[in-house]
Amino acid sequence: MRDAVIVDAVRTPVGKGKPGGALSGVHPVDLHAHAIRALVERTGIDPARIDDVISGAVGQIGEQSGNTARWAALAAGLPESVPAVTVDRQCGSSQQAIHFAAQGVLAGAYDIVIASGIESMSHVPIGSQAAGRDFLGPQVAARYPDGLVPQGISAELIADRWQLSREQLDEFAAESHHRAARAWQEGRFARDVVPLKAPGKDGELVQVTQDESVRPGTTTEILAGLKPAFEADIWRERFPQLDFKVTAGNSSPINDGASAVLITSSETAAQLGLQPRARLHSFAVVGDDPLFMLTGIIPTTAKVLDRAGLSLSDIDAFEVNEAFASVVLAWLAETGADPAKVNVHGGATAIGHPLGASGGRLMTTLLSVLEQHEGRYGLQVMCEAGGLANATIVERL
């Protein structure tokens, strides 16, 4: 029976997604291409043998439009014969790209495939693909007559339902920064991150080597001084029970970044003399309440564990996307997972959340955590807009 293995995974440093951010001067296609090129060069594979490039991107408009994966593949120097496709499962887009790539290998449709992701939020601001238009339509509005809400309000509803305090949210966020800063200091990201040169403030090229949003000096006292980000009359009237605890400090920031993962069959890896890092063990995706929107990580964790025939105690490391601190804390409360095993090297609150690239970023981190701590199984799970969630279990080889 065929299996699907990860030969290698890389990501760029994560920059602040705003004008003046470390990567804001790099075109999204070129940023994406850098990760793909670095992956091909590091593994030494013949690029002509790549069967497909499957990439995630959320803001598929402007400089990330027109099937951006195809242009990134060409910008990376891949032969014109290598096809590419861009997928959108919102924040889980590149995790879904990994699933599609692995499933293609398992089915025998692919031997070698790259799953990648891109989001340049300094070039394509969050929500710009909607362009102020109604993307739900009248029938969805009829099904949810009270209306759906922005993700920040979903995060507030989660904090309220799970009775999470502002202090808990801020403590979680501060710990994420401390873990990420410590990981950088200890060289834990050395294998993950492929530096690149980007235009600096004066126009000269500057080598970008580290994640820009990590703040080692973050404290709960500093975070406590931030105002709630989503408090407004419209939401106070609709949800009078909310205390409004979600701030810019206990949420993921806006970022630029790219990631790329090389997936093959184990037979192909052996033929090419490549040593896989992990086997893609099990996958799951679920739909959940689109009002709470971000809680799908709870049922999809249960689903992927059941599909894998594993229990929570079998998992040595978890990567749970920190879209908002309340999301991960609710997941911890429901699953009973050991917090010491969750986002060991920090999470998106500190490292950043370049939407379409984050699934690949989490996978890159998960592989390194398993290797550095000699774990066997790792579980990655991401909440996604619209009430969706992906989960992936990998087995270190």
Question: Could you characterize what this model shows?
Answer:
There is one protein chain. The protein is an alpha+beta fold and 397 residues long. The strands form two sheets. Strands 1, 2, 3, 4, 5, 8, 9, 10, 11 and 12 form a ten-stranded mixed beta sheet that branches. Strands 6-7 form a two-stranded antiparallel ribbon. Strand 11 and strand 12 form a beta hairpin. It starts with a strand and ends with a strand. The mean pLDDT is 97.
Give the SSE layout.
Blueprint: E1 5-11, E2 15-16, H1 28-43, E3 52-56, H2 68-75, E4 84-87, H3 93-107, E5 112-120, H4 138-143, H5 151-161, H6 166-185, E6 196-199, E7 205-208, H7 220-224, H8 233-238, E8 255-264, H9 266-271, E9 278-287, H10 297-308, E10 317-320, H11 325-335, H12 348-351, H13 358-372, E11 377-384, E12 388-396
Parallel strand pairs: 3-4, 3-5, 10-11
Antiparallel strand pairs: 1-8, 1-9, 2-8, 5-8, 6-7, 9-12, 11-12
Helix pairs in contact: 1-2, 3-13, 5-11, 10-11
